[in-house]
Hints:
- The chain is an alpha/beta fold and 427 residues long.
- It has helices spanning 13-24, 64-70, 104-115, 128-136, 138-143, 145-152, 174-179, 210-213, 253-260, 264-272, 311-314, 342-355, 383-396, 403-407, 413-422, and strands at residues 2-9, 29-32, 44-47, 50-53, 75-79, 83-86, 89-92, 196-200, 218-219, 224-228, 233-236, 241-249, 277-285, 295-298, 307-309, 324-332, 364-372, 399-401.
- Helix 9 (253-260) packs antiparallel against helix 10 (264-272), helix 9 (253-260) crosses helix 13 and helix 10 packs across helix 13.
Amino acid sequence: MIETNLAIIGAGFAGIAAxxxxxxxxxxxxIFESDKTWGGxxxxxxxxxxxxxxxxxxSFNEPDLVKKIxxxxxHYEHSSESNNFADGFWVRHPVQNNLRQLPVEERIKxxxxxxxxxEIPAEKIEDYQKWLEIQYxxxxxxxxxARYTRKYWAAEPKNLNCNWCGGRMYQPxxxxxxxxxxxxxxxxxxxxxxxxxxxxxxxxYKNFVSEIVKNLDIRCNFEVTAIxxxxxxxxxxxxxxxxxxxxxxxxxxxxxxKMISKNAEVLDAAEKLQSTSMALIxxxxxKNFNFPTNWFYVYDExxxxxxxxxxxxxxxxxxxxxxxxxxFEIYYSQEMPLKFxxxxxxxxxxxSMEKMGVATRADVQVVDCRHVKYANIIFYKGMENLRxxxxxxxxxxxxxxxxxxxxxxxxxxxxxxxxxxxxxKEL
Length: 427
């Protein structure tokens, strides 16, 4: 039996940060990871010398600790400029104040949409659909963000709350909409919520924490199958066990609840907490395409991917010499399950790639399809109340739950890292 003062479940960025904080405090800690390597959702994989992260990852480096650790490694600084593909047109992001690239008739409809918006007090906005309509009007809402919501969140906007969206969805004034609609007006300022994003020069995104990982005790292929909170023992799929004094978990909150609780209310709440899953179609090209931005969004319903990003644009170290790459993110959920087999997803992705004019099939050197079970938390109406029921149960069992899925919140990688680091404050 393994014995440790602190057991940490999961070696994603949150678990690694918790281990780093434990080392600062001279606390004996072991990190247990179910996968064959560390990194979690911020990890990567390689196909014929093409490296792909598990979806798009870039660091904003806002917390000082993140800056200290991440920026100590050689890295690239990237602009947060991005594009959208909608109904055959390429439009700068966000669409709402970059209308000049759309047909005149479409621009007029969008402008009318903004002019005809309802005025409703914030406290009376009950769901994300209504929030969008108040911000952008009904036409723009249905034509752009509502369509994208179904693809990215795999949910109907009317079923979501709007607690998460304020800092992530740009809300322009009518003047900004009009300014961005005239082709001869100056290019609008980039209004993305951060201006600069960072990415390691080598090793993929997870390399940002590679130096601190060297000093941590990480045991891979240790999947937790049972937690005895009375005896404080973890049991693993490989037959090993661990006795701990303190426990930090980054596993998905619903999974943790099912392992530790027999309370019907808690289990019912855990069952109702939902997240998206993600199919990743990763494509390597036999030539160096100079993609204009790190990523772009896709609104068309006949294209499965909601978002596409370029690993080769983030760092040329991610591809063989004179090559390039794209990764297509396709989301699905319990509400909107995946409709296609892997082979169908690959075929539709290659067709959409040609439809959007980014590459041809003759340019493709490798194609890979794999799935990530937990992608994003879905903010269904009432989710926070259900989450609080589960969190209270976890705390009752003297477990600290952190990270995107441990907190069950919309955390970026920098925030997940800090969530793990700050979890030691609760010990």
